[in-house]
């Protein structure tokens, strides 16, 4: 049984990871961490070179996180998911369909209602599209 968490270096991503770790420990579940990377919009040489570097750095961060989680005694896997075409919510839901987790843990950004209306909400899309429980976590206000 698995808990899937979307991780990023942002405060909400870190808060989601911390809560997912707590949930995995308390439930005796495996943790699957996903870092979704948005790829370049165009295939220009400079963007592709930058993308390669971004992808390499993300994989290095993932390996370091994998090691830290293992040192903490957690059964965990950290995956970098490069994404050039899908919306982030759809990419995460794709991973969820593949893994069939018991729960998805997401970090929420603090935005105004107008900001959510204009920009949409990945969390809302995941909540509506997931076939399992979804736990939404806010970062502490002082972390922003």
Walk me through what this model shows.
With 144 residues, the chain is α/β, with parallel strands linked by helices. The protein has one domain: 3-Layer(aba) Sandwich (Rossmann fold), CATH 3.40.50.620. It is built from 5 helices and 5 strands. It has helices at 11-27, 45-71, 88-99, 113-119, 122-129, and strands at residues 2-6, 30-38, 76-83, 103-108, 133-138. Strands 3-2-1-4-5 form a 5-stranded parallel beta sheet, sandwiched between helices. Helix 1 links the parallel strand 1 and strand 2 (30-38). The chain is globular, with a radius of gyration of 15 Å. The mean pLDDT is 86.
Would you summarize the structure shown here?
The protein is an alpha/beta fold and 144 residues long.
The shape is globular
CA-CA gap between termini: 32 Å
Name the strands of the widest sheet in spatial order: 3-2-1-4-5
CATH class category name: Alpha Beta
Major sheet attributes = 5 strands, parallel
Helix content: 40-55%
């Amino acid at each position: 049984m698995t808990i899937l968490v979307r991780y990023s270096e942002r405060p909400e991503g870190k808060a989601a990871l911390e809560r997912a770790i707590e949930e995995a420990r308390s439930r005796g579940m495996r943790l699957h961490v996903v870092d979704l990377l948005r790829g370049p919009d165009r295939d220009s040489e400079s963007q592709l070179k930058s993308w390669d570097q971004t992808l390499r750095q993300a994989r290095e961060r993932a390996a370091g996180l994998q090691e830290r989680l293992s040192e903490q005694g957690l059964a965990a896997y950290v995956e970098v998911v490069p994404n050039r075409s899908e919306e982030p919510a759809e990419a995460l839901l794709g991973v969820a369909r593949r893994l069939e987790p018991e729960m998805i843990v997401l970090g929420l950004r603090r935005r105004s209602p107008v900001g959510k209306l204009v920009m949409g909400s990945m969390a809302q899309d995941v909540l509506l599209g997931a076939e399992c429980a979804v736990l939404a976590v806010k970062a502490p206000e002082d972390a922003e």
